[in-house]
Automatic annotation (TrEMBL):
Superkingdom of source: Eukaryota
Broad class of where this protein is predominantly found: cytoplasm
Organism: Gossypium darwinii
PANTHER family in UniProt: OS06G0237300 PROTEIN
Location relative to the cell: Cytoplasm, Cytoskeleton
SMART domains, sorted: LIM
Quaternary structure annotation from Swiss-Prot or TrEMBL: Interacts with F-actin.
Name recorded for this polypeptide: LIM zinc-binding domain-containing protein
InterPro entries xref list: Znf_LIM (IPR001781)
GO annotations of cellular component type: cytoskeleton
Record key words, sorted: Actin-binding, Cytoplasm, Cytoskeleton, LIM domain, Metal-binding, Zinc
Length: 82
């Protein structure tokens, strides 16, 4: 088993992620340095992040954004943020 030759691209910046800086969130590769909230730039942990179409948010921000709009529970896979 080897991952050599498998180039993973960071979902956030779309650059190659090397294993030493790889952070895998639900199978989606990110740079550790890219794994932060897009709003407050706070560092995220695997247990405390939320993502919407590849954009990362901290949980409080995410809930604030989407509960207010009533889109948190349904249709949020296809919901687009302008
Ligand atoms: Zn990145
Ligand atoms: Zn945040």
């Amino acid at each position: 088993m080897s991952f050599i030759g498998t180039q993973q691209k960071c979902k956030a910046c779309e650059k190659t992620v090397y294993p030493v800086e790889l952070l895998s969130a639900d199978g989606v590769p990110y740079h550790k340095s890219c794994f932060k909230c897009s709003h407050c730039k706070g560092t995220l942990k695997l247990g405390t992040y939320s993502s919407m179409e590849g954009v990362l948010y901290c949980k409080p921000r995410f809930e604030q954004l989407f509960k207010e709009r009533g889109n948190l529970n349904k249709n949020f896979q296809s919901h687009k943020i302008a």
